[in-house]
Write a structure and sequence with these properties.
Number of strands: 35
Radius of gyration: 35 Å
Keywords: Membrane, Transmembrane, Transmembrane helix
Helix content: 10-25%
Distance between the termini: 138 Å
CATH architecture of the largest domain: Roll
Pfam families: Transglut_core
Number of helices: 8
CATH topology of the largest domain: C8orf32 fold
Protein name: Transglutaminase-like domain-containing protein
Strand content: 35-45%
Oligomer: single chain
Shape: elongated
Strand order of the largest sheet: 5-4-8-2-1-11-14-13
InterPro entries: Papain-like_cys_pep_sf (IPR038765), Transglutaminase-like (IPR002931)
CATH class of the largest domain: Alpha Beta
């Protein structure tokens, strides 16, 4: 019976416990068959149409829902009819102000509660009988914990009724008229969005996952513990959260600051630290992190350009990304086929979270599919993708999970998560997917992502380096603190000019080379940074430079060639360095004609010989006087 299927789905996606869902399914089945009518009623004896409406209102940073069910039951046979209807709601749902009615007016629902659920039983007051007769139940209640306020966004997972082809089912969400939030992520996509109303007609998924608001902000505090076990000094690097096509960082502090920073081949953000012999050092990183539902325009060009340098290793088998058993994947080609294979092949093992979670890699997990956690889901996808010629890589970071059963976090050193990405050659963008969370939740993480994944490191060149925050440990400590924030990050763009090195007195006949260094002392990445040189009475071989990306604390050197504009004329030149619409340098350059230089050299030589001659004459005269 489709009614029973819907109740089990409604229950299951809240409790997220598979065995309990199956047990509860059977419990409801026996209950409804016993109570639906005086005769045995089959699913083919009637059809049911459902309309579910959620009317949202805001109250002190909480979202309240007025939930309205309209359940229309159509008799398909004259000899049977439905007299009763039951729905069970998990006790985790906070409901109040329950009201029920049918076509003839208000009815009193029978409500019973046990440790796990609240059962609501409705009985028609005077049901219509006969073939094609229609009876309608109306059920209304308030719910305070279905839609979640998560930082700057709202999130919800709505249960979906599994209906027959000839039945209809509509879900409507009405946002508050006072909000400017719009739906940014929806799985599946809605059929209609008009104003603050969103409608799904006959969704074919088990749940509807929706996010309202297109940017999420997180406050982060990450701790890195470094130790030099050697008797000689060393330099070491740590990986701070990088900026990506869908993630922007706003650094608040790094204490102590790194000696230097760099962006590696995979676009990781690495800080360099010096450690004395046997020294330990603790680094505390604080930042706000914005995660976007759409690709950022400012960084897209950079990531599209560097893929050509990355291609030489993005198809290479690595330690955890290699497969010997290829017979099972011989008919798999596309990223979607690989994703479906991984999601269906592997089974998430919750017991490994709290045990010695040894990473199996792709080949071993193919033979042990029930021993998988997020790393194995990612490893298997990447190994197959690379085998099929699809550029792919692994991301480790933080998955902000509202329920660990639905969205588990399973890297042992701290609360971390891993997921793969593949490069879409048509859109020229990296696409993040999460087979782990689809396996555990049933939510589609292939066609769209979410705002709950925070990138710590990107691994394309190596399968186990660099290490993500939370992996730099000396003792068993909690080193990751991530929470949603409501405050808007403030971006600070500032450049420091260093290492000036060029002649400021030049000849009118020669070319010169100069250089200077720019350091990002702001709090976020600078993408496509223009550097302009403006001159007077000077000719530049190149006056405009573009730094593709400059991370906080990172330095880039600019080298330029210049010469005098006018010949045989002594004058003053000028060089200005403009970055971020600010003048960082105004330097005068003295231009001396080469003939002047030649005359000065001649004069210097003549003067030198004259002085030597006078000294020689003086010495001769002294000797003569002595005789």
């Amino acid at each position: 019976m489709k009614l029973i299927d819907w109740i089990s789905s409604y229950e299951g996606m809240t409790l997220f416990v598979g065995k309990f869902v199956k047990y509860f399914f059977l419990l409801l089945l026996s209950f409804i068959i016993y109570h639906l009518s005086s005769n045995v009623v089959l699913a083919s004896d009637f059809k049911t149409d459902y309309q579910v409406e959620y009317n949202l209102s805001e109250s002190q940073n909480n979202l309240n829902s007025q939930v309205n069910f309209k359940i229309k039951i159509i008799n398909l046979k004259s000899e049977v009819f439905v007299s009763k209807f039951a729905i069970s709601i998990p006790n985790t749902f906070s409901i109040a102000n329950l009201k029920a009615s049918d076509d003839n007016g208000y009815i009193t629902p029978k409500v019973t509660t046990d440790e796990e659920k609240t059962k609501i039983e409705l009985e028609f007051s005077n049901p219509a009988v006969g073939k094609d007769s229609v009876n309608t139940f109306f059920l209304n209640f308030d719910q305070s914990n279905l839609f979640k306020v998560n930082g700057k966004v709202w999130e919800v997972i709505l249960p979906v009724i599994e209906n027959k082809q000839d039945e209809s089912y509509a879900v409507t969400v009405n946002l508050p008229q006072t909000t400017n939030k719009k739906i940014s992520i929806s799985k599946p996509k809605p059929d209609l969005v008009t104003g603050n109303k969103i409608i799904w007609n006959n969704p074919n998924t088990k749940t509807i996952y929706a996010v309202f608001g297109d940017v999420q902000v997180y406050q982060s505090e990450l701790t890195y513990h470094l130790k030099n076990d050697q008797i000689y000094p060393i330099f070491t690097e740590v990986a701070f959260p990088p900026e990506t096509a869908s993630q922007k960082i706003f650094i608040q502090s790094i204490s102590p600051a790194p000696e230097s920073t760099r962006i590696d081949e995979d676009s990781n953000y690495l800080g360099k630290y010096f450690l004395k012999p046997l020294e330990t050092k603790t680094i505390v990183y604080k930042s706000q992190i914005e995660v976007y539902s759409k690709t950022r325009d400012d960084s897209t060009l950079y990531f599209r350009n560097i893929i050509n340098q990355q291609k030489n290793y993005l198809l290479t088998a690595k330690k955890y990304w290699q497969l010997d058993k290829l017979d099972l994947i011989k008919n798999i080609e596309s990223p979607k086929e690989i994703y479906d294979f991984v999601t269906n092949r592997l089974k998430y093992n919750y017991n490994k979270i709290n045990s010695d979670n040894k990473r199996l890699g792709a080949d071993l997990v193919m033979s042990n599919p029930d021993q998988a956690v997020c790393l194995e889901f990612s490893d298997l996808f990447i190994a197959i993708a690379r085998e099929k010629g699809i550029y792919s890589r692994e991301v480790e970071g933080y998955g902000f999970s509202l329920d660990p059963k639905l969205q588990p976090l399973s890297l042992s050193s701290d609360i971390l998560h891993a997921w793969p990405e593949y490069f879409d050659t048509k859109t020229e963008n990296w696409v993040a997917i999460d087979p782990t969370w689809e396996n555990t939740s049933g939510i589609n993480y292939f066609d769209s992502f979410d705002l709950n994944h925070i990138v710590f490191v990107i691994r394309g060149k190596n399968s186990d380096y660099p290490y993500a925050a939370g992996m730099y440990k000396i003792e068993n400590s909690h080193d990751i603190l991530i929470k949603p924030a409501t405050s808007q990050p403030v971006e600070k763009k500032e450049i420091l000019l260093e290492g000036l090195d060029f002649p400021t007195t030049i000849s009118d006949k020669k070319s010169y080379q100069g250089k200077f260094t720019l350091k990002n002392v702001g709090n976020s990445y600078l993408w496509g940074l223009p550097v302009n040189l403006e001159v007077k009475n000077i000719i530049l071989k190149k006056d405009k430079f573009i730094i593709p990306v400059l991370a906080p604390f990172e330095k880039k050197e600019i080298i330029f060639d210049y010469l005098a504009k006018e010949k045989n004329k002594k004058e003053k030149g000028e060089l200005n360095i403009i970055v971020l619409k600010k003048q960082l340098l105004n330097q005068n350059i003295i231009i001396i004609p080469e003939v002047y230089t030649l005359l000065i050299k001649i004069f210097t030589v003549v003067f030198g010989f004259s002085v030597l001659f006078l000294i020689y004459r003086a010495i001769i005269n002294i000797r003569r006087n002595d005789h």
